[in-house]
Amino acid sequence: MWIEKYPDHRILLLRDFNAKSRVWGKRNTDERGNQFLSFCNNLNLSIENSPELPPTYDSTRGHSWIDLLITKNIDHGIELEEFIAKITTKKCFGKKKVKIILDKKNRAEVNKQITKDRTLIDSIQDSIITILKYHFPYYSGTTHISSNSSTDPSFLEISPGELEAVIHSIKLKKASGLDGIPGEIVKEINYANPEWFRTLLNNLLRNGEFPTAWKTARIALIPKKNRDLTHPKDFRPICILPCWGKVLDKMLAERLAFFLESKNLLHNHQFGFR
After folding, report:
1. What mean pLDDT is reported for the chain?
2. Nearby residues of 269 by Cβ (< 8 Å), 6 or more positions away
3. Pfam families, per this entry (predicted)?
4. Dihedral of alpha carbons 117, 120, 123, 129, sign
5. In what order do the strands lie in the sheet with 11-16?
């Protein structure tokens, strides 16, 4: 192993180790976490992460502390701080430009280029509909999930701390959904009257409801690089959902993750989305 081959070299390793431990996160230590701790101890490696820091992965699917910074022979003062400051600047990995098709000029280009059955489509509306149908096939069937009336109602209650943790994770300065309400406003509403917001979410969970408006997305079409834009597959759709729905979605994802982990219902060989 190269770490053993160069014992006196300065080592700084940052990656997703998919290992859990109370040493660096807020999840219970698993077998992979114990193995990784033994690995670090045997090679005299330092784990720079702290359980007091925010999660390294945070999204609507949940959060985790599995991205770890490992060092050896590194000064824990200025040297480490300068490196972290360098890799966390916006210009570190170059500047990436993304062009979103929203203005009339770009839509006119789409109008002339999108094809269907080897023929050009004449109108902007038909062009957009063709792209959306390609990426989002229509499902004509119906699915009904009945609620379980025997569920313990105490399980449905969202605690103030649980809601606060999810609200705190809302990313600011992000595009808003169809309702036009950004994350900053949702946060302010919760801070102004947290009990009202908690009651709203509890009522939705108790009744087994997820508002349709919270599941309706605003779609932006992003052209793929080096494509001639003559086919719907040349565009990448981005769905922007209302922030209200993201809060409830994350609440459910957190509870499902806790239930599956606490009951050991996930296979030990499953590493993704945990």
Report:
1. 76
2. none
3. Exo_endo_phos_2
4. positive
5. 11-16, 67-72, 46-47
